[in-house]
Write a structure and sequence with these properties.
Number of helices: 3
Number of strands: 5
Order of helices and strands: EEEHHEHE
Oligomer: single chain
Strand order of the largest sheet: 4-3-5
Helix content: 25-40%
Bound molecules: L-tyrosinamide
Strand content: 25-35%
Largest sheet: 3 strands, antiparallel
Shape: elongated
């Protein structure tokens, strides 16, 4: 929905010539793109070191951070591992799912609008 706003014109003669001095323009409200949480799910079979490796490789976590996030997923069942634009989130989920499948681990990675 366009939003009117005022812009000040020069109006040198204080409005005597009928120049209103102020005009209305409209702009469209720009919205931030929605963000998506990428989540890892726990399972009983994927090795812990494999999950740590995924978190380092695809989410840029250092080893200590990756180990901590892996343990959170292991204990709680799920954890958010990053928040991204739709396209980046979709890419990360695809990379993780591909990598897990190629190594024959049942690891699941999903995304959800924030
Ligand atoms: N629960 C797995 C194990 O005990 C480890 C694991 C952690 C698996 C996180 C998946 O997203 C996961 N080997």
């Amino acid at each position: 929905m366009p939003i009117p706003f005022q812009i000040q014109m020069s109006d040198k003669d204080g409005g005597r010539d009928g120049d209103p001095g102020v005009v209305l323009q409209t702009r469209s409200k720009t919205k931030r793109p929605p963000l998506y949480k990428v989540m890892l799910l726990n399972d009983d079979f994927t090795p812990m070191e494999f999950v740590v490796h995924i978190l380092e490789r695809f989410f840029g976590l250092n080893h200590a951070q990756a180990f901590e996030v892996m343990l959170t997923v292991h204990k709680k069942g799920v954890a958010v591992v990053g928040v991204f634009s739709y396209e980046i989130a979709e890419t990360k989920v695809g990379q993780v799912m591909d990598f897990a499948r190629r190594h024959q681990h049942p690891l699941q990675c999903t995304m959800e609008k924030e």
